[in-house]
Predict the structure.
Amino acid sequence: MTGTLEQLIEDVTRGNVTEVKVVLATVVMALAVYQLLLAAVGYRRLRVPFLASAPALWAHRASGDTIALLTVVVALMCVGYYGFDFGDDGGTHAVVAVGLLGVLAAKVLAVRAGGRLGRLLPLLGVSLLVLIGVTWWTSAGGFLGVA
């Protein structure tokens, strides 16, 4: 089964698994920063003349869905193709990435459940931004030569 999944990932990326993963992870990172700005506008912490609170929150939700989907795709690519690598620097990346997926699941749960869990959304959002940044830094950052 693993060989089949590896081959599927190889075929879909046309042999450029690392490059595709880096591009997708970089898009996730850029969208995460965009998310922070949208949340700041949506919760009226940042005022800009061209964007009101309600549209900012709508865009925040829509881009959050995109981030969640891309994060899961990148995670599946990583585990399906590279497996869990806990040696050298891979351990930090793997542990932080698992934490990222856990916080992502918690945020989705808090959004869907609402109520008192809604109070956790700012903390979960900032945690996601930090974990996305560290995950990106420990993989794509090194590949791009910025880490």
Q: What stands out?
A: Helices lie at 2-12, 17-42, 53-82, 90-113, 121-144.
